[in-house]
Amino acid sequence: MPKPKVFVTRIIPGAGLMKVRAGCDAEIWPEQLPPPREVLLKKVATCEGLLSLLTDRVDAELMDAAPKLKVVSNFAVGFNNIDVAAATVRGICVGNTPDVLTDATADMALTLMLAAARRLVDANRYALAAQWKTWEPLGHVGQDLVGKTLGIVGMGRIGFAVAKRCRGGWGMSVLYHDVRTSEIADRELGARRVDLDALLAQSDFISVHANLDDTTRGMFNAAAFRKMKPTCVFVNTARGPHVVQRDLIEAVRTGTIFAAGLDVTDPEPPNPADPLLSTPGIVVAPHIASATVTSRNGMAQIAADNLLAGLSGKPLRAWVNPEVGPRRR
Ligand code: DGY
Question: What span, in angstroms and rounded, lies between the C-alpha atoms of 62 and 315?
């Protein structure tokens, strides 16, 4: 029996790629940059499976160009690049890669929190530019973490992992904003669910972990930054469009907030001339939160398992739209 035809939009770690190659007739896009849109539309035309990245837009147009498509397996926990409702209506299964990147992403949020709070990147630039002349009593003064208040926006797996580190490591108090109460955060971390305005006003550190959708897009705008403390450190490891970037730049530039650490931007990458990359107090990383060996291998394995399950009519290991049910292709 011929193997099902699939398109994989980038080279992923071998742990997953081997499984995909063993079970499928797989074409793997070999370039560093994503396949251009017209190429992607052509490639999926005869495919039963697509292993996509967060940089590939998987929308109704693409699904209609792929009449045999049974499964879209995203190599990411986030799936805002996929029109899940359009997939469900067409009987296409969608998978993602949760859990395996929780710790790596939480660690990255803390890396950014510390780097921004201590103005590490500015200080490093200063040292590299030979501006370091002596020990300066008033130079490079940052913010402490011990005993401060952390505000988590989106208390899911990653938000909880960040809060746990901050609570255990620095004895921080934890506030969170979420559509539902997290009993485990309340019980184990003494966390308190509050409305967004209270979180913005009371937190010394704010870390974003919400899904990106129409309710959260642009939620961190000038009005939100004005509600924060002037000492606040803002961290985003979720998705760039949560933030109105020009408002964030202005907020840091004018001292409305103290600093920001971003692993995600809008767009990605930013234009090299974007002031986001040159404003003192803003630390930017190129969307690397899940970039550890363990995480990326785990993501590759789940993505491969999801793809194979979707092709063979089995339940996906991490299934975004199980409600597709008997309608699945
Ligand atoms: C995700 O998985 O959604 C991250 O943004 C990349 O690993």
Answer: 23
Residue 117 amino acid letter: A
Whether residues 70 and 36 share a domain: the answer is yes
Q: Which CATH number fits the domain that encloses residue 302?
A: 3.40.50.720
17 and 149 in a single domain? The answer is no
Number of structural domains the chain divides into = 2
> For residue 290, which atom of ligand 1 is closest to its CA?
7
Q: Ligand 1 atom 4: the closest Cα is on which residue?
A: 76
Q: Is the CB of 212 under 6 A from ligand 1?
A: no
8 lines ligand 1 (CB under 6 A): no
The answer on 143 and 91 residing in a single domain is no
Residues 11-56: pLDDT tens digits? Answer: 999 999 999 999 999 999 999 999 999 999 999 999 999 999 999 9
In terms of domains, do 53 and 174 share one? no
Residue 290: CB within 6 Å of ligand 1? yes
Distance (Å, whole) CA 222 – CA 251: 7
Q: Which residues are catalytic?
A: 239, 268, 287
Nearest residue (CA) to ligand 1, atom 1: 76
pLDDT tens profile 249-297:
999 999 999 999 999 999 999 999 999 999 999 999 999 999 999 999 9
pTM of the model: 0.96
